[in-house]
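lol so apparently i was supposed to do this last week
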Amino acid sequence: MQAWKDYQSQNNDRFLNELLDLLRIPSVSADSKYKADVAKCADAVKDHLLKAGCDNAEVCSTAGNPIVYGEKIVDPSLPTVLVYGHYDVQPPDPLDLWTSGPFEPVIKEGRIYARGACDDKGQMFMHIKALEMMAKTNTMPCNIKVMIEGEEEVGSGNLGKFLEDNKEKLKANVVLVSDTSMISMEHPSIETGLRGLSAVEIEVTGPNRDLHSGVYGGAVANPLNTLCKLVASLHDENGHITIPGFYDKVADLTPEERKELNLAPFDIEEYKKDLGINEVWGEKGYTTLERTGVRPTLDLNGIWGGYQGEGSKTVLPSKANAKITMRLVPHQRPAEIAELFQKHFESIAPGYVTVKVTKGHGGEPVVTPTDSPAYKAAAKAIQTTFGKDPIPTRGGGSIPIIALFEKTLGLKTVLLGFGLDNDNIHSPNEKYDVANFYKGIETIPYFHKYFAESFGK
Ligand code: BES
Ligand code: MN
Ligand code: MN
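anyway here it is w/ BES bound
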């Protein structure tokens, strides 16, 4: 559409500068020292929604970080799209591995480097700019409601209640989210599923105090040694998770489904080279795409205890700790899996230590339909702006709230993501290609157009 094209080419530079300003706000949700920045970021998002042309926008306080909500209702007879995203970001650590400041965005070789550049400020902001483009050119095909939260990276603990409390306000026909990745600009794709998540923390306690490892070593169990042994036993030699019952509910794919999943272009040599690894690893009998797309996992996210300072200290620590998350696939339930983990871990603990397993946050896996008018609208939008049909893929990441959109609001989601797997989200030097940012802004309005057309509008 010419009006969109013109508007975008006249405003792209400003769009980018506005994004850079947003990236300068360190809205880290995991660390309370950033509380004021989180609030500042919520205000900035609200201002952007108003400037983009929303009829109204507000910062809604919750028991945690605020949720920003705005809407533009052009005609009640048109379908309504609920856009979801998050303005909170992961902690930037380890800082010394960044080549430029995580909150001092720079553009190098067409890429925006900053924490949140892709996940999810860059992607969420595309929707605000697409809304602006449609609103300012009086070409909104659908009504738009926008909900941008500030706790996605810590499990969206307060968003469920917000959905419950605001069912009427959030009434829509579909949820549209850009917080996932596609294969590449040459191979645009749409994720049609996300894994769930179940988090646990472990504490292993041995003696009542740190001990001299010479005086007591060999006679008293070392909790760190024990923790390592226990954690190592959670996978067998085939990369299979050993917790009894863990796979009971995992839906096996049909041979056709597996074949289709593996049709996605994937270059294992390039994959290894990009990651600097000599070999891939994983559950025996599955391809890399299956391992990340449709198989569950168990990973240590952190393990600590004992002495970690300079030099050496001959200590036999009193305690050892670990954080573990498990990625889940349909039809595994986060609470059930955490329970299975706890039971198993307690049962394998030797008598010479005590173990405590604390269950953490979780999120349900989701599969999004590919035969719905909304998916078809997204596919057609991609076809329009990329000149290629998108490839459906299964994403390995998690967005815990997506399952609740269906449960609480009865809404299906379309995951129209423009990130790339190597955008370094959650890692040092997170980036987002300027081209992807612009392509997203260009594509989103077509989703609205084709979605409205599917209602005969
Ligand atoms: N945007 C990601 C999820 C994602 C990334 C999905 C790439 C698909 C492809 C999201 O912000 C995220 O990081 N989620 C967390 C969940 C959580 C409860 C902290 C995750 O997946 O670890
Ligand atoms: Mn995200
Ligand atoms: Mn994230």
